[in-house]
Specification:
This protein is mainly alpha-helical. It contains 7 helices and no strands.
């Protein structure tokens, strides 16, 4: 059964951005100054422009991982909050509404690791571990805390694949 992956929009934009960087690099490589007119690249040295492209690619990679994780986290929060709707059926209904509101509010403050732990039985230990690794890299990108360096860089393709697999395994819950 096909499903709408909420990560696809970010992934498409990432691919478009990479293509744009390749087009600029090709324009530099072929000395196509006309294509560069009106851009920051026009009139700069090839070396400086190539350095900008390389730094931009690194930043785009990191920001893509950050965006993918943000969308992933919101999807997980929404799923768990939805599971609390059953509370609304329990009498007395006015109390149930208050309990539900407190539950929804509390879930907003959970750490992503709490969600991963909660759902591990549905996705498996290995995927949970891989997801934690992606999230750890996302945390480093967001905060750049030198005391919490990630074990390794997470490439955007890895983040997309891991988070998509996690969402795919829980989409029927």
């Amino acid at each position: 059964m096909m499903w709408d992956n909420p990560l696809d929009a970010v992934w498409r934009q990432y691919e478009v951005t990479k293509d744009c960087l390749r087009v600029v690099q090709t324009s530099l490589d072929t000395n196509n100054e006309m294509a560069l007119q009106g851009t920051r690249f026009f009139g700069t040295s090839r070396r400086e422009s190539t350095d900008w492209i390389a730094r931009s690619q690194e930043e785009i990679d990191d920001l893509t991982v950050l965006s993918l994780c943000a969308i992933f986290e919101r999807r997980i929060i929404t799923l768990v909050q939805g599971k609390g709707r059953g509370i609304l059926e329990e009498p007395p209904l006015d109390l149930s509404e208050q309990v539900h509101a407190k539950f929804v509010d509390a879930v907003e403050r959970w750490r992503i690791d709490d969600f991963i732990s909660l759902l591990e039985r549905y996705v498996g230990r290995d995927l949970s571990k891989d997801t934690r690794s992606v999230v750890a890299y996302r945390n480093w990108v967001a905060h750049r805390n030198p005391k919490r360096q990630p074990e390794k860089k997470t490439e955007p393709q890895t983040a997309y694949d891991v988070l998509t697999q996690f969402l795919d395994r829980i989409r029927e819950l």
